[in-house]
Amino acid sequence: MGKKIAAFGEVMMRLQVPGYDLLSQAGTLVYSFSGTGVNVMSALARYGHDGYLVTRLPDNPLGDAAAANLRKLGVAQKFVVRGGSSIGMYFLENGFGARPSRVTYAHRLESSFNTAPDNVYDFAAIAGQLDAAHFCGITLAMNDSVRSQLLRFAEAVKARGGIVAFDCNYRPSLWGENGYGKAKPYYEKMLGLADIVMMNEKDAMHVLGMPAKAATREGQLEELIPEAASRYGIAAAAGTHRSVNGDNTHSLRGYLYKNGAFHYSDLLTFSVYDRIGAGDAYASGILHGELSGFAPERTVRYAAAAAMLAHTTTGDTPMASEREIERAMTQAAGDVER
Fold first, then answer.
1. Which UniProt keywords apply (predicted)?
2. Extended beta strands in the chain, E state
3. Which of 138, 294, 319, 337 would be 299's cystine partner, CB 3.0–4.6 Å?
């Protein structure tokens, strides 16, 4: 039986340069709508849950287009409000080889979501209708008003016995100078409220300022994540380690720390068509497993397979079905499915 889960976050317009061109080379852009909350709720809706978005869209044709996209993705709009006239955008240039992909944000702080009045959402009423809610460090980075809204919503969900999920998703470009110092108190508040957290050793070291003795990433992970889980009362912590290979393939391994033990996926190596949004696919797999009562070993394998498949489709939003993910977990792929 599916659960009712909502995400608090911004709907963004993605403007993508065709192929591997730079913005300075291209003459056209392809637009779509996305955002962490959009991506995770769309995936969970595809897995059989009721996925809602708590957000504010422009009250104009731009907002209408975004709302149409949410309907197409299966994201429920019961808690979407309309107002303002602007939407946040980002420009995507696909990387190739030694050149990484590049995201350039525009109009973030002027967007309808980021300028929403404090009283525009009835968080108590919304929280009373949910089993769980998802929050993101990208939203936490926006401004004081949005941070206050996010924390109030998380507190309302927690007060009504719901599950709080938080994806650290630290973005240096959004926090600015002395970003780690600015972010830490807000991250600590959210981690104290969260039951399920997407984080890795870098979040613990840089955002939380936790020292590590180990020299390797794996050693630092196994040293710091149990300490963070204990300190903040986190029931489950999950994330990935990724490496980019010389032949343009990527390798990814997922982890889930729960009940005092680490669980790992296999190391998956795959070609990359579109990397953006793969972390949201992994998060949606972890949430699906946790909400559905999967064994931890199955949850982490499911999430890693979902992330792998997300690299194979264009756009931010994970598009794989449960059946396709289960098939990828058996490593049966390559030929035409008939």
1. Kinase, Transferase
2. 4-8, 12-16, 30-34, 50-57, 80-82, 88-93, 102-106, 132-136, 163-167, 196-198, 236-244, 249-258, 261-264, 268-271
3. 294
